[in-house]
Amino acid sequence: LDYQHVQVPFEITLWIMLASLAKIGFHLYNKLPSVVPESCLLIFVGLIMGGIIYGLNDRSPPVMDSDIFFLYLLPPIVLDAGYFMPSRPFFENIGTILLYAVVGTIWNVFGIGFSLYGICQVRAFRLQDVSLLHNLLFGSLIAAVDPVAVLAVFEEIHVNEKLHILVFGESLLNDAVTVVLYKLFRSFCEMPTIKSMDVFAGVGKFFVVGLGGVLVGLSFGFTAAFTTRFTKDIRVIEPLFVFLYSYLSYLTAEMFHLSGIVAIIACAMGMKRYVEANISLKSHTTVKYFMKMWSSVSDTLIFIFLGVSTIGENHEWNWPYICFTVIFCLIWRALGVLVLTFFVNRFHVNTITSKDQFIIAYGGLRGAICFSLVFLLPEFHRKKLFIAATTVVILFTVFVQGMTIRPLVDLLAVKRKRESAPMVGEQIHIRFLDHLLAGIEDISGHWGQYYWKDKLEYFNSKYLQKILLREYDQPKSSIVLLYEKLERKHAIELAEAGQLGHGPAHPSLLGPTFLCSSNDRTVRTDQKLEDTQNPDVLDNMQEILARNLYRIRRMGPAYNRHTLPGESEPSEHAKEILILRHKSL
Amino acid sequence: LDYQHVQVPFEITLWIMLASLAKIGFHLYNKLPSVVPESCLLIFVGLIMGGIIYGLNDRSPPVMDSDIFFLYLLPPIVLDAGYFMPSRPFFENIGTILLYAVVGTIWNVFGIGFSLYGICQVRAFRLQDVSLLHNLLFGSLIAAVDPVAVLAVFEEIHVNEKLHILVFGESLLNDAVTVVLYKLFRSFCEMPTIKSMDVFAGVGKFFVVGLGGVLVGLSFGFTAAFTTRFTKDIRVIEPLFVFLYSYLSYLTAEMFHLSGIVAIIACAMGMKRYVEANISLKSHTTVKYFMKMWSSVSDTLIFIFLGVSTIGENHEWNWPYICFTVIFCLIWRALGVLVLTFFVNRFHVNTITSKDQFIIAYGGLRGAICFSLVFLLPEFHRKKLFIAATTVVILFTVFVQGMTIRPLVDLLAVKRKRESAPMVGEQIHIRFLDHLLAGIEDISGHWGQYYWKDKLEYFNSKYLQKILLREYDQPKSSIVLLYEKLERKHAIELAEAGQLGHGPAHPSLLGPTFLCSSNDRTVRTDQKLEDTQNPDVLDNMQEILARNLYRIRRMGPAYNRHTLPGESEPSEHAKEILILRHKSL
């Protein structure tokens, strides 16, 4: 028996196996998932495993090492989150999300830090040796909402899309703030004196860390898209690039002390659209499936490891400090959400209701990120107290809040997610409204969300698509793609029901009627009609739409040294419309 | 900049990225793959990389560590090979393959070992200090044909299926022999005296290592199949089990000093059939795709690493020894193939032609397994000579033999692989012949291949399927599955050409003609006809086939104490046939 030789991969495989089997066992009884969130059960499994290992070895295994967590377990989950991020609600609410993530997190850090420092002044609690800086450092790691925990709970309760994206987006984007504040306070703890310069440098770092992460992510994302242009002959390694480049973006960002989470999200969101168009359908299935599988396993492992690592002798149980930490976490988050939402609602038509505010505050779960950060703290005499407090906060939020949030959502009758996907009609309507709003913003000279979106779309189709897509000349609109997808699905259903016609069976052959009367000119009467007809109709429809749709005016900057505003453009536009109308007549 | 922190995953990712990009680059120019095998080019890339790194660092990176190779790079390739192993030609030629793998390898080991010992006795070469045991040890690692190298070359030259499986099967199954001989000679080298007992124990070990590997593999394979019975509610982690269990089988076998390669192949072949039936279609696409991707990357990495590791100061260039090693490798393999094939051909109708024999001998490529084994040798003063000789043999076989084998195959007009998949008619024919041959073997009392196959199939449907499959009661025959697959493919093609009929378009509605006239009884005239008709026809066909096919007689042992041979069974059979005939009339 030669166990030493295979130990590392063997134990990793066994842990993954345990996680997968726990997941299967959890789903075997249908009643269980509806009562207890999976994360709670997994932590429970971890606690049992940890107890067994601790009983046998007298020390808990170092499974939740912060390196393991940050380098191997977290990236798959964040990649999955970024890749499947619903981009429309995300960008529609980006302002609110950023406000919660940046201002909200800072508010929480300082709120929790200062109030805990107040508690430390109470002589009876014997905590006078915990300095303000240490409290702030602790605040910086305990304040951040955890994406893994939020995802695990919110995926099960199906609240409406906006609420979900607000909490989830915040939990992802606060990483930049957490990284900066945590590192700032940690270096302050080690410095003899703090100059005001250092504080200002800290503020500047926010932007560097966040925007740097976005930049790193986007550049890797576009490189990934560019690479997949050349994989036509070697389809089998296509999925690899999605994983390799996004992981590299994460590692590179971490290497330069930027926000890895922000980088990987930017990378995934940046490349998705182009990669999807370049790689084959089967490669894409593999990418999607494997990403889900990987993040699901990572997620399971994180909760089990959380349980395992809780067992041990790392804790100092000073109950006043621990209890007040939990209370302050709840209070400051609730206050922060109330205040910030007040400002958000003043500037938005579509306000956040008080029910939604409650769920946002209540859904601020803490998880494995805090846990890993607290173990990364430099050694000092009260580290074990911080570890204990963090463990209790995590267990409290995951167990108490995680288990009660579903009944609360039911009780408050929070607006749920719509069950069905939007109809094609709705989609067309939404797109039409986008154009309309871009037009209105254009006319009113307001540089709003739709203006920027339109600008971005123009830049995309003018430059990016030509560089990043293999066949950039005829990118199909999403409506046409949707139509094709529906056709394919319908065909498979027909085939499975055994109703597929093998002969010339297209309805259009039964008579001279066509769906689109404007295509009469293109009807060819030769015998190859049946082969080419429908693509022709499609192309023609696209062409007509492209030719006849009024192109949205590109707006120059409001002030221009060389032209008077509205000098030449309106007349050109009017002419353009006239020409189009003449043509169509 | 904090490179230390991310170094390990970053460098791994970069190596994989390099491998993938090299692969893309290789396929960008269409002419390249037709002239040079990919493996040669990858080694070349590795040599350049190794040169650069060596120039910068003054030492080559430890990328081709034997642990890395055996624990991480080899398993994916072997898993892929086992999972996609064409089982019919493999089992049809299993006897020949085993003969080549076991007897052939032993022949080569002793042949090369003893002749090199002879060379060592020549005073002019200054090799007298290399003992017989060391030569045999070297022979045991250099004799084995390498599956990775064989696969890389043979996948490109498309020889006929039998020839391919003979070389490839040998390269996989000789692992057991190599492991035993290598470990045996290594322990002999360290022992002061060798008793005859030890030699006999070595012979016994062959069976333990090989059969033990099969046992470990099959048990993990069946556990994997059993596990996938319960993944219905959690489709997303299904693909994971295929990888986890096969990797565990490999690691477990390695742990007990059994043949890991044999174990993982047994595991993959054992589980494939059941796993495929249990998991969803998309999961299966992911499994297949990911396996191919992984093995492709592993394969690329192995050849690049081979190149990288060749650069360095590990070599002792004693040219006579090195040249004679290459020559003896060629001669002994050619002789071995000639002698063994002579015996094989005496017992088979379908003989191996002399052209095939030449390709089998010439296709005996050496690769990364030898390379890793030679680095695993215990330190002694001539280790660097062995490393040099192994490197030269590998480069010679991969470059010279690998590059000339394709022209030789063309020149000799070796029978090629058929381009098209067998037609449905052929498949039915083959299956019919199987039944016929099982019947003939049954009648003639010969326990041949078909008898055992039939027996296995019976055991499978009676016990294994009930335990391992989720829905075991109605397993569809492969013909019906093929039909469904073709239907689905056809439907997608129709949808993509835009010819899908949306109305009632089945040809059978156009008239009362049916494909299968014996189904007239089942034609229902109600309006739901169009929905249920085709599945009905299918079910009915299956039912008729199942009812009317003459069940093959299960043969008892040829000698039975309680019954006279052929006592009661013939009359029962005759009766059965009569009843069937009456029914059908």
TrEMBL record, chains A, B:
Protein's UniProt keywords contain Transcription regulation: no
Subcellular location: Basolateral cell membrane
Ranges where the Sodium/hydrogen exchanger regulatory region domain occurs: 530-585
Claim: Membrane is one of the keywords in the record: yes
One Gene Ontology cellular component annotation held by this UniProt entry: basolateral plasma membrane
Domain of life: Eukaryota
UniProt cross-references to Gene3D superfamilies, sorted A to Z: 6.10.140.1330, 6.10.250.1040, 6.10.250.2020
Annotated GO MF terms: potassium:proton antiporter activity; sodium:proton antiporter activity
Residue stretches spanning the membrane: 12-29, 35-56, 68-85, 97-120, 132-153, 165-185, 206-227, 247-268, 289-307, 319-347, 359-380, 386-409
Protein keywords: Antiport, Cell membrane, Glycoprotein, Ion transport, Membrane, Phosphoprotein, Sodium, Sodium transport, Transmembrane, Transmembrane helix, Transport
Record membrane topology: Multi-pass membrane protein
GO biological process per UniProt: regulation of intracellular pH; sodium ion import across plasma membrane
Chief localisation class: membrane
UniProt similarity note: Belongs to the monovalent cation:proton antiporter 1 (CPA1) transporter (TC 2.A.36) family.
Stated name of the protein: Sodium/hydrogen exchanger
